[in-house]
């Protein structure tokens, strides 16, 4: 399956290579660099590149290309999904997945890659198993290891791989038993010029941080499970139970994991938390353009809209923008033509606005494209779909765990066309 | 600081001479700059007897390998450490060994004995890792050793080692393909493995070594289907892809009877005749595959979702394919690479099955932040989805896209509009007008693209659109983009007959500006003049001469050549050859209109989700997706003999047990080694199930059992035989009783007697006393909430039995028992007594001791679900009303095929009432039988209706607010009706 892996940084250097079968010369990456050159933007490099003898499948994360070399037919998503899993694992281990972090921990990276694939076929990709095999480096452990000469490799061979609950390690012990669940929803929407919603949907996830002793068996039920249109589960969730009773029943992995992602697509259910009044215009013949933007809360169920950030890619002809924000700060990058306005919190009494003029290239004709406005925001303590967790029960262990649940709404791909 | 250095010294201070900075991070920049000269001290460090130094050295060497630096000269020094005690050093040596063994074959052999020793280690994980490294060393000379090791590991006790063996198979195969036959034997053996751990890996090996040996799958097909949900994600992908291919060779096309509107008529007729010959019935195994893969659409792994989607696309009946759309649309939220692949596949699917994605049209709307390659693919999908009803929305959406800053995307949008216009006649004019407006765009690319598209559109119906050609002719005054000018001139030339007045005028203007035009425009001017000369030589003769003269002296030789060539061709002279006669035919031949079609058309002959599909070219190792067979091959090949029973307890899987979490019990009886992984799980889970006590296991078991029984006839047979086999094993008495119960409960109830007896105490265990019980279905007078159980005692022993009574009743909470009065003495053969048990509407068993004056026997009574209710009388209207209130989750519907003996109303009624204590509800239609009852304890209504259709097909509906009761009742009735 996966023959080799090359990590390529933003400047086009291969800084790590790993081979699972016989060695493939790194010159195979030249085809990748060619494709990279042809693509104007980094994200436009095609994920699958055929070369005379190999196929290159790559993903771009954290400005690093992970280029997998394969030799024969394999589902491309299989490789892509695996590469993303590799990145997630690195992030889990080192906190960040940057070139520096990988270089600093090159030995751990190598050990991880060795365990994750055998002969190019995924072997252990569950973070709980990997952490038993190879302990994540912490400052304390690095210190201790240098002094005592002990190692990062687990002395105990992991048993997780052998059980039917491979995602949970055995013998977990905590003094404080706690289970936290974050319900995070993102609104994806396209709003048209006149302010009406073209498409809107909610993408939600439930991320969990479970630190419970032993082998707890949890059930989580919702007040309104029918809201969930489409769901995908962590493998620990018992599917039949969900089908029959709409209850999430699972033996959780230890630590952080994504329990569930869901989708609410029915348009009338999607509340749009903010509205935008905009007037962006260029006049023919003059080198000036008007820019006028006002934000206001719409359907927020009384909660405050926070961390609002507005960004817009202005037309190429714009040389500079001279704007006046009623609150927050704005920046305009004259090279990328990216305008960002950090608004902060929206005060319904005094609506934030950004007004002023844009100067255009002298003599150039009026740009015929209209910029789109991207909005980011956060609303605490509310899931915009109205999803509510009813209760969480634990079976199988005697102690009483501490349970917590948090709701949050964010804007996902929230675009306003002008 | 001082403390730490003191500690160092005490430890024997590995801060030795060669390495002054002890805390030096092995991976930090330093070592990268230091390469070859340092190799000497690396060797020294490796030779030292301190593990910490060795580790340090190995870390540096691994860092070198990672950077792609050559570290092969250290091979002898490294390989010595293969037997090192320190586990991390050992692992890093393995890494090194696997990387360089190929280059240093002789030296690598030194390490082999270490692994051979490891293969015999009592620890399964060490055995596995030894095999893993041994098989990764690509040295041909050890092929026999590897073969032996794999064979041995394939019959290892531990499933983990067997998994490793499966992984080793493709490695050995790539090293020496001559071993294929032997490896196939191993694969065959491993395919029969019952554990989820092995399944994925061995199918992977199968796919790499012998994908053509589809016959190996037959016997394992059902097992693979059943295990699928618990296999790890990566294995699922491989298995699903393989099973797709398998199903294509073994089952019939489920869509054969459907009128596939995309298919041509000939095929339709063919299909129709075929359909007449034989009505399509889906093979139960085909159904099994579809049913067992469907839940995986909910996987978090995009590759698994895609695999299921392609399986449904290639195998499912048309009506059922729709389910995959939602899951695929969900994947569009994922990383852009995932989106890219998914959209490619969606694009192919939308051509054949447009309807299924239509509801999700808006999910494919484009955001300005999408990368261009995603935008273009989304556009492709939107174009494929366009039809008469949604075209106006789509066109409105396209209008916004045209204003995008991303010009490549705008160009693609214009192409898309062109395709919409060709496909949907109603909007052709609107599209044309829109495109004509775009001709005034400032962007060259946009204009060029528009002109090209307009040109293609006009070619389809030139006579209707002479006004557009006129309009474009006017545009020549304003448009400066050479490509667009050239295209317009070509159009006018081509259709000069439709614009006879304008064409010469345009030529006149062009002749005037000829010298200032770009080269491509000049070429088209020459073309135009030639065509006009041929059609309208009277008006244009002079103009043409003029243009050709200008061209004769042009700087560009291409233009000079063209002018010379055209002059020879069109202007008749003595020298001109035979060709000039045909000049008109050459220039004004009818040119076929270009076909605007999706690049994704016909891509579906590749298996979706595959690399070959994505590239639209066959990749190495791609296995063709076979066409459906004309007639189904013998389905009995998939039947499994009892001896090699695959429906072992091992298939009672984690996810299956969903409804009831603890699953203690059954595995402990099964002594087989294959279940060891489950054993460990049940061990860990039994803690959770302990509160449920032993009796809980029965209900679990029975539920699992009955569930499996639906799956197929064979499984049923097997299950029973299995249970019987188990009986022979020495098991604890109580367990044995439980099994006895199960056996009895499961057997079909003989229709003649309404109440059937179950054994409570066997003659042998009871030392002569045998006890049977039955549910008399009489109301239990002392307490209405109890189920009456009639107990019958038989004494065949020589000695007499006295003081028969109950003791030590153990019940689940909420359950109650009304004991039968003590039977002091009895004479003769038999005695009966009636007791009452309140089962609390559950199938939990009531356990108690049966005591005589000398002995005590542990016994238990477990009710079939049908006995937990009592009949009530409802009128037809009441029934309908109540049924209307018990919809949604409270309603369970199953389709079934009635047993051949059970096709008339009378037998149906008899069988249902035997299976459950219900009364018949009058019904107007003779196609439907209705029954009603209430659960004994809570009085919840239980409504059952059986609707019969043609040829034994029937639909069973159970409405009950107690969902567990409902589910179990469905199973019981289903069993009663199908057997």
TrEMBL record, chain A:
Protein origin, superkingdom: Eukaryota
Compartments where located: Golgi apparatus; Cytoplasmic vesicle membrane
Cellular-component GO terms for this entry: clathrin adaptor complex; cytoplasmic vesicle membrane; Golgi apparatus
Entry keyword Protein transport: yes
This protein's record includes keyword Membrane: yes
Membrane-topology descriptor: Peripheral membrane protein
InterPro entries xref list: Adaptor_comp_med_subunit, AP2_Mu_C_sf, AP_mu_sigma_su, Clathrin_mu, Clathrin_mu_CS, Longin-like_dom_sf, MHD
Name of a matching Pfam family: Clat_adaptor_s
Keywords, sorted A to Z: Cytoplasmic vesicle, Golgi apparatus, Membrane, Protein transport, Transport
Family indicated by similarity: Belongs to the adaptor complexes medium subunit family.
Listed name of the protein: AP-3 complex subunit mu-2
Lineage: Eukaryota, Metazoa, Chordata, Craniata, Vertebrata
Gene name per UniProt: ap3m2
UniProtKB/TrEMBL annotation, chain B:
Subcellular location(s) of the protein: Cytoplasmic vesicle, Clathrin-coated vesicle membrane; Golgi apparatus
Membrane disposition: Peripheral membrane protein
SUPFAM superfamilies recorded: ARM repeat
Keywords annotated in UniProt: Cytoplasmic vesicle, Golgi apparatus, Membrane, Phosphoprotein, Protein transport, Transport
Location of the AP-3 complex subunit beta C-terminal domain: 723-844
Polar residues: bias regions: 1-17
Keyword RNA-binding: no
Compositional bias segments (type: Low complexity): 676-697
GO biological process entries: intracellular protein transport; vesicle-mediated transport
Cellular component, GO annotation: AP-3 adaptor complex; clathrin-coated vesicle membrane; Golgi apparatus
Region (Disordered): 1-34, 657-728
Pfam families: Adaptin_N (PF01602), AP3B1_C (PF14796), AP3B1_C_2 (PF24080)
InterPro entries for this protein: AP3_beta, AP3B1/2_C, AP3B_C, AP_beta, ARM-like, ARM-type_fold, Clathrin/coatomer_adapt-like_N
Biased composition (Acidic residues): 698-717
SMART domains, per database record: AP3B1_C
Family: Belongs to the adaptor complexes large subunit family.
Function description: Subunit of non-clathrin- and clathrin-associated adaptor protein complex 3 (AP-3) that plays a role in protein sorting in the late-Golgi/trans-Golgi network (TGN) and/or endosomes. The AP complexes mediate both the recruitment of clathrin to membranes and the recognition of sorting signals within the cytosolic tails of transmembrane cargo molecules. AP-3 appears to be involved in the sorting of a subset of transmembrane proteins targeted to lysosomes and lysosome-related organelles.
Designated name of the protein: AP-3 complex subunit beta
């Amino acid at each position: 399956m996966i023959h080799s892996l090359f990590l390529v940084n933003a400047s086009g250097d291969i800084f790590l290579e790993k081979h699972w079968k016989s060695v493939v010369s790194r010159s195979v990456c030249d085809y990748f660099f060619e494709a990279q050159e042809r693509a104007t933007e980094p994200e436009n490099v095609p994920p699958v590149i055929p070369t005379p003898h190999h196929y290159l499948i790559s993903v771009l994360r954290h400005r690093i290309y992970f280029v997998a070399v394969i030799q024969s037919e394999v589902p491309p998503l299989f490789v892509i999904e695996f590469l993303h899993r590799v990145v997630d694992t690195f992030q889990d281990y080192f906190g960040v997945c940057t070139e520096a972090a990988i270089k600093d921990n090159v030995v751990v990276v190598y050990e991880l890659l060795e365990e994750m694939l055998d002969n190019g076929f995924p072997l252990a990709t569950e973070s709980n198993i990997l952490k038993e095999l190879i302990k994540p480096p912490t400052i304390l452990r690095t210190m201790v290891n240098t002094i005592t000469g002990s190692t990062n490799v687990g002395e105990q061979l992991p048993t997780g791989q052998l059980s039917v609950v491979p995602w949970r390690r055995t013998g977990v012990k905590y003094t404080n038993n706690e289970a936290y669940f974050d319900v995070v929803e993102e609104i994806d929407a396209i709003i048209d010029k006149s302010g009406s919603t073209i498409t809107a949907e909610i993408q939600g996830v439930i991320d969990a941080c479970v630190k419970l002793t032993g082998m707890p068996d949890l059930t989580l039920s919702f007040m309104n499970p029918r809201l969930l249109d489409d769901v995908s589960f962590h493998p620990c969730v018992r599917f039949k139970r969900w089908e029959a009773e709409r209850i999430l029943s699972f033996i959780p992995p230890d630590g952080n994991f994504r329990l569930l992602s869901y989708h609410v697509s029915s348009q009338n259910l999607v509340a749009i938390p903010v509205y935008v009044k905009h007037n962006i215009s260029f006049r023919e013949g003059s080198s000036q353009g008007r820019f006028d933007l006002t934000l206001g809360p719409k359907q927020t169920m009384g909660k405050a809209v926070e961390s609002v950030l507005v960004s817009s890619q202005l037309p190429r002809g714009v040389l500079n923008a001279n704007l006046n924000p009623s609150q927050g700060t704005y920046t305009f990058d004259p090279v990328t033509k990216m305008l960002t306005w950090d608004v902060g919190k929206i005060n319904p009494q005094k609506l934030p606005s950004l007004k002023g003029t844009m100067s255009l290239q002298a003599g150039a004709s009026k740009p015929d494209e209209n910029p789109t406005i991207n909005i980011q925001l956060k609303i605490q303590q509310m899931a915009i779909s109205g999803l509510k967790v009813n209760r969480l029960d634990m079976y199988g262990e005697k102690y009483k765990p501490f349970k917590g649940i948090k709701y949050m709404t964010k804007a996902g791909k929230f675009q306003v066309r002008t | 600081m001082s403390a730490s250095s003191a500690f160092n010294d005490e430890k024997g201070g590995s801060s030795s001479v060669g390495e002054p900075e002890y805390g030096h991070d092995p991976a930090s920049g330093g070592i990268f700059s230091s390469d070859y000269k340092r190799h000497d001290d690396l060797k020294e460090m490796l030779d030292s007897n301190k593990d910490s130094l060795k580790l340090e050295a190995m870390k540096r060497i691994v860092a070198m390998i990672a950077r792609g630096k050559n570290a092969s000269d250290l091979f002898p020094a490294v390989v010595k450490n293969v037997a090192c005690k320190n586990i991390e050093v050992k692992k890093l040596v393995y890494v090194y060994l696997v990387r360089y063994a190929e280059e240093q074959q002789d030296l690598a052999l030194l390490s082999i004995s270490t692994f051979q020793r490891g293969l015999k280690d009592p620890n399964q994980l060490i055995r596995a890792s030894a095999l893993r490294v041994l098989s990764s060393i690509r040295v041909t000379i050890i092929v026999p050793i590897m073969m032996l090791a794999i064979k041995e590991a394939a019959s290892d006790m531990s499933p983990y080692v067997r998994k490793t063996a499966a992984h080793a198979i493709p490695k050995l195969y790539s090293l020496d393909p001559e071993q294929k036959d032997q490896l196939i034997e191993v694969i065959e053996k491993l395919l029969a493995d019952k554990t989820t751990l092995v399944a994925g890996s061995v199918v992977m090996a199968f796919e790499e070594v012998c994908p053509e040996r589809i016959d190996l799958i037959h016997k394992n097909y059902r097992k693979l289907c059943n295990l699928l949900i618990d296999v790890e994600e990566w294995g699922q992908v491989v298995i699903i892809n393989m099973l797709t291919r398998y199903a294509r060779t073994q089952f019939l096309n489920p869509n054969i009877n459907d009128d596939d509107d995309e298919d041509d008529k000939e095929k339709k007729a063919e299909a129709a005749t075929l359909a007449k010959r034989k009505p399509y019935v889906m093979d139960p195994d085909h159904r099994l595959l579809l049913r067992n893969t469907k839940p995986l659409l909910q996987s978090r792994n995009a590759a698994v979702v895609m695999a299921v989607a392609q399986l449904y696309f290639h195998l499912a009946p048309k009506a059922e394919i729709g389910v995959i759309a939602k899951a695929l649309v969900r994947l569009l939220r994922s990383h852009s690479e995932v989106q890219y692949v998914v959209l490619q596949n969606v694009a192919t699917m939308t051509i054949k099955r447009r309807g299924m994605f239509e509801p999700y049209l808006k999910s494919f709307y484009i955001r300005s932040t999408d990368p261009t390659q995603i935008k273009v693919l989304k556009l492709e999908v939107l174009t494929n989805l366009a039809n008469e009803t949604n075209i106006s929305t789509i066109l409105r959406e396209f209008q916004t896209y045209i204003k995008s800053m991303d010009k490549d995307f705008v160009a693609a949008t214009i192409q898309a509009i062109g395709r919409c216009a060709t496909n949907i006649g109603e909007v052709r004019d609107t599209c044309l007008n829109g495109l004509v407006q775009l001709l005034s765009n400032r962007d060259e690319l946009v204009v060029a693209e528009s002109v090209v598209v307009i040109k293609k559109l006009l070619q389809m119906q030139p006579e209707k659109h002479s006004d557009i050609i006129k309009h474009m002719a006017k545009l020549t005054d304003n448009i400066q983009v050479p490509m667009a000018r050239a295209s317009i001139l070509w159009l006018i030339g081509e259709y000069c007959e439709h614009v006879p007045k304008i064409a010469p005028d345009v030529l006149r203007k062009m002749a005037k500006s000829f010298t200032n035009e770009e080269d491509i425009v000049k070429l088209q001017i020459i073309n135009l003049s030639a065509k006009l000369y041929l059609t309208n030589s009277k008006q244009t003769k002079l103009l043409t001469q003029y243009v050709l003269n200008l061209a004769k002296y042009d700087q560009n030789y291409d233009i000079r050549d063209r002018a010379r060539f055209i002059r020879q061709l069109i202007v008749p002279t003595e020298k001109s050859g035979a060709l000039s006669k045909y000049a008109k035919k050459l220039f004004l031949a009818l040119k076929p209109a270009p076909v605007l079609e999706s690049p994704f058309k016909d891509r579906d002959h590749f298996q979706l989700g595959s690399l070959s599909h994505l590239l639209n070219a066959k990749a190495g190792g791609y296995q063709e997706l076979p066409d459906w067979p004309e007639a189904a091959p013998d389905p009995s090949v998939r039947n499994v003999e009892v001896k090699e029973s695959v429906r072992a307890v091992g298939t009672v899987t984690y996810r299956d047990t969903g409804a009831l979490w603890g699953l203690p019990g059954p595995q402990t009886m099964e002594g087989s080694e294959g279940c060891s992984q489950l054993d460990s799980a049940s061990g860990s889970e039994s803690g959770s199930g302990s509160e449920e006590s032993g009796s809980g296991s029965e209900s679990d078991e029975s539920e699992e059992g009955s569930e499996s029984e639906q799956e197929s006839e064979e499984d049923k047979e097997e299950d029973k035989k299995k249970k019987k086999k188990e009986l022979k094993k020495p098991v604890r008495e109580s367990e044995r009783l439980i099994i006895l119960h199960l056996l009895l409960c499961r057997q079909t109830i003989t229709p003649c007697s309404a109440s059937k007896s179950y054994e409570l105490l066997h003659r042998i265990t009871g030392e002569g006393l045998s006890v049977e019980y039955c549910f008399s279905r009489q109301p239990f007078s002392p307490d209405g909430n109890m189920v009456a159980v009639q107990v019958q005692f038989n004494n065949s022993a020589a000695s007499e039995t006295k003081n028969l009574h109950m003791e030590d009743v153990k019940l689940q909470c909420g359950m109650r028992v009304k004991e039968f009065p003590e039977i002091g003495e009895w004479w003769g053969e038999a005695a009966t007594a009636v007791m009452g048990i309140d089962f609390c509407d559950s199938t939990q068993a009531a356990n108690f001791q049966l005591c005589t004056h000398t002995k005590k026997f542990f016994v238990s009574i477990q009710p079939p679900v049908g006995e937990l209710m009592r009949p009530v009388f409802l009128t037809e209207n009441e029934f309908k009303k109540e049924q209307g209130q018990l919809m949604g989750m409270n309603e369970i519907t199953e389709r079934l095929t009635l047993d051949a003996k059970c096709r008339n109303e009378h037998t149906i009624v008899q069988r249902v009432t035997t299976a459950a204590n219900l009364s018949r509800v009058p019904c107007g239609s003779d196609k439907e039988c209705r029954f009603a009852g209430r659960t004994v304890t809570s009085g919840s209504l239980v409504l059952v209706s059986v609707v019969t259709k043609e040829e034994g097909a029937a639909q069973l509906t159970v409405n009950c607010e107690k969902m567990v009761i409902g589910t179990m009742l469905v199973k019981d009735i289903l069993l009663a009706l199908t057997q």
